[in-house]
């Protein structure tokens, strides 16, 4: 069981900045995210796009913002459970919460900060009949262990970077790789597009465009696919089918945790500390709603800051917390580091 | 207001919502639907990166050609038909008076 002071669900910008504000109060944090990397929407949807409304950054790429946040929170050594979805929340008799993920990892903390944004990023599934029946029986949406496909006949579908990148990667592992896409144009890094073109020219992969899988066949597992290629139906014998159509956020299980939900967001008390209807469970950033709510990064940062003050009082009811400026008291990391403003030199002039 | 146009949006239950839309506020159809509490998500905020705003055009209005981004995104979307468009790429303009669109299934 992983134990911490504040368990943060969601490692987007809001969740990451929470680690910093909690750290200033000497509270430890652990983050859970369904994505394999931190950064939330900034990392998954628009890492290479600029943001213009982060105070004091006239322009910053979303990916760079995440990098800088990670740098800022590093001294506070947060723990990470990445690539797992938080699916359940239970309260213990001694007023702690236990959060369990889809992979069975258990976490325990007196304070939960839900910074889940638009929801947990999950793969977009194409509308193919019985697709779900074949999940883990040849159908995969994310490649966690490429070795699994060694000596297999693999079919990938999609027109973006991940379809191109995995085609290139699996070509060296699988016994055959087929990439199919609904049109001839691919939207990806030029370099990857060119490499895929080369492999196709060398006959090392099969490229089918315009093409679309219309049916999966097989009694126990994937055995073949029925593909519409250029208006003609063809059958393709294969062991694995990997549809790569990006990820989409789904609020998912959080909606069943007994929290007050309004318009797909969690209602919080914004006049005080962004606490939900469950004491000790806070919701901050894009995931919450209150009168006048704006889904912006800077609003998430503000909410995280106020929430940490309230969390401190909950964890240490007997202690009084006095606000200190970082310039005055510096930043003491859990890694032993201590950043501090330079003292003025005082020297006499003879 | 004189600058307003009328747009008919058919939701996923087949119910038609008649919306009055301003043409002088630099709005697109995705933003109009969201502001009217219709179930259009607009996850990517209108950058043609998510297809959560896909709709079908059911009237015979003339549209400017799809941009490359929109074409590429629709090629990766589901339930795409001949008359599919991304609502976020449809700028509300006076020539769209009486437009009829149907919201595509979630996917
Ligand atoms: C294209 C685009 C442009 C934008 N431009 C701007 C801009 O210019 N300025 C601005 O201020 N904002 C902008 N935004 C909005 C901004 O990105 C969001 O406000 C911000 O990302 C919210 O941060 P967050 O940490 O609250 O949530 P998110 O970034 O959504 O992160 C939430 C994380 O929680 C995870 N999660 C959720 N539920 C679970 C669960 N049950 N288990 C595990 N993990 C879970 C998700 O996988 C996700 O990674 C833009 C958004 C988009 C899409
Ligand atoms: S809002 Fe994402 S494509 Fe239109």
Write structural notes for this entry.
The complex is a heterodimer of chains A (about 350) and B (about 110). Chain A has about 350 residues and is α/β, with parallel strands linked by helices. Helices cover about 20% and strands about 25% of the residues of chain A. Chain A folds into two domains: about 210 residues, 3-Layer(bba) Sandwich (FAD/NAD(P)-binding domain); about 120 residues, FAD/NAD(P)-binding domain, CATH 3.50.50. Chain A starts with a strand and ends in an 11-residue tail after the last strand. Chain B is an alpha+beta fold and about 110 residues long. Chain B has one domain: Beta-grasp domain (Ubiquitin-like (UB roll), Roll). Chain B has a five-stranded mixed beta sheet with strand order 2-1-5-3-4, covered by helices on one side. The radius of gyration of chain B is 13 Å and the shape is globular. The structure holds flavin-adenine dinucleotide and FE2/S2 (inorganic) cluster. FE2/S2 (inorganic) cluster binds next to loops of chain B.
CATH class of chain B: Alpha Beta
- CATH topology of the largest domain in chain A: the name is FAD/NAD(P)-binding domain
Q: Rg of chain A, please?
A: 24 Å
Structural class of chain B: alpha+beta
The CATH architecture assignment of chain B turns out to be: Roll
Strand order of the largest sheet of chain B: 2-1-5-3-4
Strand order of the largest sheet of chain A: 6-3-2-10-22
User: Averaged pLDDT of chain A, please?
Assistant: 95
How helical, in percent, are the residues of chain B? 10-25%
Flag low-confidence runs of chain B. Answer: none
Find the count of extended strands of chain A (DSSP E, 2+ residues).
25
Bound compounds, each kind once, are: flavin-adenine dinucleotide, FE2/S2 (inorganic) cluster
């Amino acid at each position: 069981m992983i134990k911490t002071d504040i368990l943060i669900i969601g490692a987007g910008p809001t969740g990451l900045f929470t680690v910093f504000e909690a750290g200033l109060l000497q509270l430890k944090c652990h983050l859970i995210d369904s994505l394999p990397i931190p950064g939330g929407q900034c990392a998954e949807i628009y890492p290479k796009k600029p943001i213009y409304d982060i105070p004091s950054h006239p322009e910053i790429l979303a990916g760079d913002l995440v990098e800088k946040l990670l740098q800022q929170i590093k001294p506070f050594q947060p723990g990470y459970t990445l690539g797992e979805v938080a699916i359940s929340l239970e309260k213990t008799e001694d007023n702690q919460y236990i959060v369990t993920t889809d992979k069975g990892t258990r976490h325990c903390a007196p304070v939960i900060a839900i910074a889940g944004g638009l929801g947990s990023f999950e793969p977009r599934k194409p509308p193919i009949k019985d697709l779900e029946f074949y999940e883990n029986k040849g159908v995969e949406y994310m490649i966690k262990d490429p070795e699994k496909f060694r000596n297999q006949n693999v079919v990938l579908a999609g027109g973006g970077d991940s379809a191109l990148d995995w085609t290139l990667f699996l070509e060296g592992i699988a016994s055959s790789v087929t990439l199919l896409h609904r049109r001839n144009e691919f939207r990806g890094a030029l370099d990857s597009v060119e490499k895929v073109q080369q492999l196709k020219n060398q006959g090392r992969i099969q490229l089918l465009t315009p093409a679309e899988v219309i049916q999966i066949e097989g009694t126990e597992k994937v055995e073949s696919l029925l593909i519409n290629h250029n208006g003609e139906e063809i059958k393709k014998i294969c062991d694995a089918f990997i549809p790569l159509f990006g990820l989409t956020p789904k609020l998912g299980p959080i909606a069943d945790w007994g929290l007050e939900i309004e318009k797909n967001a969690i209602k919080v008390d914004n006049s005080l500390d962004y606490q939900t209807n469950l004491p000790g469970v806070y919701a901050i950033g894009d995931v919450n709603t209150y009168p006048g709510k704006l889904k912006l990064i800077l609003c998430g940062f503000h909410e995280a800051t106020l929430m940490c003050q309230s969390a401190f009082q909950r964890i240490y009811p007997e202690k009084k917390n006095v606000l200190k400026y970082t310039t005055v008291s510096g930043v003491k990391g859990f890694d032993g580091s201590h950043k501090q403003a330079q003292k003025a030199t005082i020297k006499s002039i003879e | 207001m004189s600058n307003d146009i009328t747009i008919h949006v058919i939701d996923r239950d087949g119910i038609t919502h008649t919306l009055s839309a301003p043409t002088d506020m630099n709005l697109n159809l995705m933003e109009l639907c969201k502001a009217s509490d219709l179930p259009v998500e607009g996850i990517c905020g209108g950058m043609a990166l998510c297809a959560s705003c896909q709709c079908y055009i059911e009237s015979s209005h003339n549209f400017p050609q799809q941009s490359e981004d929109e074409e590429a995104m629709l090629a990766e979307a589901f339930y795409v038909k001949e008359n599919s468009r991304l609502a976020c790429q449809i700028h509300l303009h006076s020539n769209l008076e009486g437009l009829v669109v149907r919201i595509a299934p979630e996917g």
